[in-house]
Amino acid sequence: MPAIDLSIDELLTTTRNVRKRLDLERPVEREVVEECLDLALQAPNGSNQQTWEWMVIDDPETRRQLAEINRDALAHFMGLLDEKPELLSGGDIGRNERMGQISESVYFLIEHMAQVPVLVIPLMRGKVERQNVFYQASQWGSILPAAWGFMLALRSRGLGSALTTLHLWKEEQAAEVLGIPYADYTQAGLFPVAYTKGLDFRPAQRRPAREVMHWNAWQEKRP
Fold it and tell me: Can you give the CATH number for the domain in which 72 is found?
């Protein structure tokens, strides 16, 4: 599929988490997903071991089951928040005016997950939570560049997604539905994939680099 006309800077600054603007009516061709994954898998990875697998789900019944797992995971998470609200205390950096809109879009996606044409789950070999920090970092450092590359490739072809992680509260259930050897693989998230409604995405509200950079030594306050 031909790429849309975006400069490199435009691609990097307008690849958004897309939820409400996913086109739930338009089918997504398998060839396009494979093409985007081919591009994503060019990403650098630790020692070029390529210890990843990618589940691609377009079967309606399987998508329905995963959507139900996602809803159950939300209920589980909300129950935890009732007990430990600090789990969601990421801090207000003074730029959270859109949090209400973001929450609305998250709930929209949860309610419509079964209608998303394609779901993609990246897998890492091994159970990373059982390993030391070095091993965990090396595994995540290998899968995340490919995950971001997948989102960039989708954007370049008029599709969108978001790397969601909610279903990981019920990872073992998802593994059972998909036939994934649970003891041998870690799911790294879930991408809902669809064409987007329109292509006019803008740069996001982000802190400038100077507010988060520390040159040579840690500084509590920066000019």
Answer: 3.40.109.10
**Residue 188 domain boundaries:** 8-78+103-198
Single pTM value for the model: 0.87
Segment 150-179, tens digit of pLDDT: 999 999 999 999 999 999 999 999 999 999
Domain count, the chain: 1
> Which helix (H) or strand (E) covers residue 160, if one does?
strand 159-160
On whether the CB atoms of residues 40 and 150 are closer than 8 A, the answer is: yes
Does residue 213 lie in a domain region?
no
pLDDT tens column, 102-141? 678 888 899 999 999 999 999 999 898 878 898 888 888 8
**Alpha-carbon distances of 207 from 89, 92, 156, 163, rounded to whole Å:** 18, 12, 25, 21
| Within a domain: 68 | yes
Q: How far is CA 30 from CA 96, 176, 191, in A?
A: 37, 24, 15
Residue 122 counted as domain residue: yes
